[in-house]
Amino acid sequence: MAPFTTSVAALALAFAGLTTLALAMARHYGAIWRRSPTAAEAALLRALGALLLLEALLACTLGWGVVVGLVAWFCLLSVAGLGLVLLLPYAPQRVLLLAQAGAPLALLLLLAGGR
Amino acid sequence: MQTVNDGMTTPSSRQLQSPAPAGRGRGLPYGSLLSRIAAAILGGYLLAAASSLLLARLLPLAPAEAVLAATLPSFAIYVGAVLWAFAVTDVGRVWRGLLQPALAMAVVACLLPSVGAP
Amino acid sequence: MKEGFRHSMAWLHTWGGLLFGWLLFAVFITGSLGVFDEAISRWMGPPAQATAALSSEQRMEAVRLATRHLEQTAAHSPFWGIRLPGEGEGSLRLAWRDGVGQLRIDHLDPLSGTPLPATAQRESDGGHHFVHMHFQLQAGTFGIWLVGLATVALLVALISGVVVHKRIFKDFFTFRPAKGQRSWLDGHNAAGVLTLPFQLMIAYSGLVVFYDTYMPAAIAANFHDVDHYEQALLERPGRPARQGVAAPLLPLECLLAVGETRLGREARFLVLSAPGDAGALVRIFGRPLAEDGQQELVVNSGVAAFKGATGEALWLEEPGLAQGGGALLTQQVMVALHFVRFGGYPLKWLYFVSGLVGAVLIATGLVLFSLKRRKRQTPEFGAATASIHRLIEALNVAAVAGISLACIAFFWINRLLPTALEQRAEWEISLFFAVWALSLPHALLRPPLRAWWEQLGLAALLCLTLPLINAITTGDQLLAALARGDGARAGVELVAVAIGLLLAWLAWQLRRRQRLAMEPLEVH
């Protein structure tokens, strides 16, 4: 698969995954929903976040193979995390929207490209 | 970073016991500080180099492979030695703690046969 | 004991980070630019020539012409370098050393062998300048050692930083803007924690690149010299020794043809050691293919080595294969991780951004050092405290804003220096250092906040107007470069403009702070 498609999809998935992991924390959950997450909600968000990060890894390995894909994944996580950290205090709602829209689009892109 | 002060003096035993910054108003112990920095940079390097010497002659690999495999981790030993040199209170102990094992490893390495071709 | 340990690590992080941070910022920013050294070299070099790829016969003819030229002008040079046209370079580029050891460069037309005038070349180190700054500060072996020491200090600072930062997981995604020192600390922590794997990897692999320089003990104790060690490691015969006996070279174009056959790909350049000597060594380097490094880390485009006088094949590094045992493979993977020749442009961009984040990590650390000391004046240097803090603040400005200014100024210098200038490439580098050096007195003369925004503002201005100065001096326009699909040239200018916008915003913020707070020493 073309590395460009892969990187865009993987970046969107990494961003969505990290956002989900951040929302499992009371501080960031509260910024959006004005209350603390229940233990079950937090656990669910953590599981979903981990799943999304694994999907990002999968996207990377589809594009570059396992070895280069792993390196790409680590770098993408850093960059996506920084984007998230910079956006989160300014526009938490939009971050949520971006993550919610980005992850399904990225999966579609992967399915379309990966056959 | 946010909770501790960072005075000019390297931690003396008194500082380690009390969080209050020491070393002010009674002259700065530059001597022991410089000694500690020298121990970290030079002593740490000697320890790392000696570890590569010993490991190169112990590893059951082809000569050049053993040399390379012994050299690659030596930088981690150097970094660890520098961190340790600043974590220990007594500067004398820092020097001893770095040079004694370095010397020991170098001596043992010299007693072992060279691995390379002549 | 636990608090004591954290206390010592905080001290080490603060002072080690400060002293080596000045150097490390330059290493990080030039290293990040160095990721795109080829694109920068293309932007800085002569205008792109639309050249068709040379056929095998044309390459042989070009090498024959090159040999003739070098035999006439560089018979006594210890080496010859011949770079064949390709990858956007239209000329045949010849390098050698003259009688006083100065590196000399000539460009020939690859088809006719006529020397091309220097004015058509805009001779420049290009992106290699940033690479050389990155690993040796343009200061030879001493520079390599200094960068190595700074790299160890970086690893120490990263690990001690993790120890000192108590709430890594609690504050993992936390950034609280517009809160003064708290925001700087949040930014510092986020930059460090989120890119920690990259920073550790890039620092350690950087040391491994020069492991035989930095840690030669085990090699020296077990091998006669580095050459013997390398022969054993790479399992290949030794380089022929210089005989001191003259012997004519075999026609190089024949060796080229054999070499290309053995490599199974086109040659990119040839290097001759001791040409004209009976011990002459000819190495033929393969040209990287587009698909190299798409799926593997270690990218090797191949080398074929021959004896120049007899044509005897000495060794062959086959393209694409990492040879040797586990330790060699480990070292090659680490080096490959540092040089990012794999994964194409996406990976280069990720490294560029991660490297710049490393620079931000250092810059925020330096700023924090001064911010803390503005808040509570601790007499840590006795009576000299105030002036030492002032000096540190100025060094921070020069180390961060000054080098940024010098880097973008290097692009301007490249366009403004006359193409006919003797030693033009050296002049470019000298002027780069002059700009960096001047940033320090400026930072000392101005109030700190003012020095910050003036230097950053000037850097922003130079970034934003880079397409303009290029259009004026060369007549080539950004849009035209985009239209003809010259991504390298257009990319350099687009990135410069983007960084310029960021720097302009930063400078504007700092200027506003300075205006707001009548007290010029108070950053927010």
Word description of this protein:
By secondary structure, chain A is mostly helical. Chain A has one domain. Chain A contains four helices and no strands. Chain A starts with a helix and ends with a helix. The model of chain A has no long low-confidence stretch (mean pLDDT 91). In chain B, helix 2 packs antiparallel against helix 3, helix 2 packs antiparallel against helix 4 and helix 2 packs parallel to helix 5. The N terminus of chain B is likely disordered. By secondary structure, chain B is mostly helical. The radius of gyration of chain B is 18 Å and the shape is elongated. Chain C is an alpha+beta fold. Helices cover 60% and strands 8% of the residues of chain C. Chain C has 19 helices and seven strands. Chain C has a seven-stranded antiparallel beta sheet with strand order 3-2-1-4-5-6-7, covered by helices on one side. In chain C, a hairpin with a 5-residue loop joins strand 2 and strand 3. In chain C, helix 1 packs across helix 13 and helix 15 runs antiparallel to helix 16. Chain C starts with a helix and ends in an 8-residue tail after the last helix. The C terminus of chain C is likely disordered. The chains are: A mainly alpha (115), B mainly alpha (118), C alpha+beta (524). Chains in contact: A-C, B-C. The interface between A and C is medium-sized, with 30 and 30 residues.
